[in-house]
Design brief:
By secondary structure, this protein is α+β, with helices and mostly antiparallel strands. It is 23% helix and 45% strand.
Length: 273
Amino acid sequence: MLFWLAVGLAAVLAALLMWRQVDIYLDRAAWTRLADLARQDDVRFDPSLVADLPEPARRYFEFMIENGTPIRTVVRIETTGELGLGTRKEPKYQPMTAIQILAPPHGLVSKVKSGVLSGSDGAMPDGSWTRFWLLGIVPVVRASNSDHQRSAFGRVVAEAAFWAPASLLPSEAVTWEGVASDTARATVRNGEFAQSVDIAVDASGAPKEVLIQRWSNENPEKEFREQPFGGYPSNYREVGGYRLPMHVEGGNHFGTAEYFAFFKADVTKIDLI
């Protein structure tokens, strides 16, 4: 009996390890697809590209991208920080490290480790996922459906405002409008999805707040609906002609009494691909 129990446990363990390897393979394949979208041309930023935009948007671009800088829309980001695995009242922050590729509007892959949990979040034109494992062996969180993809696209657009500003330059896929004297709104379209992002800037053009209405079920009713999601970027540094935030805090219900900053990250390395 013990022999057959051991055989059964070994078979289950082998199946779980194989499943985990499949997840790793899928992450790598998606990462490669996004990396292949990196621009190879030598188009460079010029203020004339944004001359017709609302004034806060012009200020944003002229702060974020130096004149003459090559246009780069794919970014590799390494971060350390904290993830809140609980609620606003009991955040249960855990140390976190992450490596991410961000290629707006097409998608992202974020490989995360937090304590005994590890896994990835991803968004691609043909799907999205959240896949996390306990001790690299036991699957504990798995999500992938149309609601998840719509929500994930919102994250792609929000993070574009932080770390991939060139992806928000006006185009057939990106339009801009003014909201207030210091706030402009970009609307990004990709396939069946459209997502607006409000960027509030200071006098120099540095983003102070980034806000989207994200499709999410992070609410007491656990119902998917649009609700405010956003964050605060800070500690800007020059990276290859771009001024990018090295610290970002963000979360659900941004700008309300229910705001929970479940994500606090410091950039340790960032590369424009």
